[in-house]
């Protein structure tokens, strides 16, 4: 009888874990970022403090990565992996933009840390994340809050065509789930 109870407990626990996994995997893409929509207008600054924005991307395809910053090991890993494909992505005529949250000095350090010619844009006060439905409150670990604040953005990848139309959107299902850079390269190369 005890074996039957343990088997039942394991089945119920497994079913609960599977349901939670499916629920987490269904993080919905904000309607504003669905493929086929025009990339919404937004303003940011680059790592030199120069004003930039979504309108600046028109005329070339672009890969936009919204990353939390160097405090997030999964974001750092994603950017490190992407550096292997940087030249191929830009050779296809696309721009590669990494959008990071505040502060500007940290954004400069991120650019130096990865030592590549990505474009690094700063989402000051997380206004872009809020506008695009990517804001996540209270997720920055305590030891990093003095520099980064409490809130951050949800890791997201976009491919936008030269007319500013979103052709691909990927929100990480889990913090360690990031799109394969080869997929981003395939999509942007097809534009």
Describe this structure in words.
- This protein is of the alpha+beta class and 191 residues long.
- The chain has a single domain, classed as 3-Layer(aba) Sandwich (Glutaredoxin).
- It is 37% helix and 20% strand.
- It is built from seven helices and nine strands.
- It has helices at 2-25, 73-83, 86-91, 104-114, 127-132, 145-148, 181-189, and strands at residues 43-46, 51-53, 62-66, 95-101, 119-123, 135-136, 152-153, 156-160, 166-171.
- The chain has a seven-stranded mixed β-sheet.
- Strand 4 (95-101), helix 4 (104-114) and strand 5 form a beta-alpha-beta unit.
- The termini are far apart.
- The model is unreliable at 18-25 (pLDDT under 50).
């Amino acid at each position: 009888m005890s074996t039957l109870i343990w088997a039942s407990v394991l089945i119920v626990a497994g079913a609960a874990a599977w349901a939670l996994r499916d629920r987490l995997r269904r993080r919905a893409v904000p309607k504003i970022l669905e493929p086929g929509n025009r990339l919404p207008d937004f303003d940011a600054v680059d790592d030199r403090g120069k004003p930039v924005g979504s309108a600046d991307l028109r005329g070339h395809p672009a890969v936009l990565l919204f990353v939390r910053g160097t405090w997030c090991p999964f974001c750092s890993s994603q950017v490190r992996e992407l550096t292997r494909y940087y030249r191929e992505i830009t050779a296809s005529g696309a721009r590669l933009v990494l959008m990071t949250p505040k502060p500007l000095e940290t954004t400069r350090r991120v650019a130096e840390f990865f030592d590549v010619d990505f474009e690094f844009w700063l989402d000051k006060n997380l206004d872009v994340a809020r506008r695009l439905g990517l804001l996540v409150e209270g997720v920055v670990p305590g030891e990093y809050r003095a520099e980064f604040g409490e809130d951050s953005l949800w890791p997201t990848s976009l491919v936008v065509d030269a007319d500013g139309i979103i052709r691909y959107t990927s929100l990480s299902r889990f913090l360690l789930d990031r799109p394969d850079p080869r997929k981003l390269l395939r999509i942007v190369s097809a534009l």
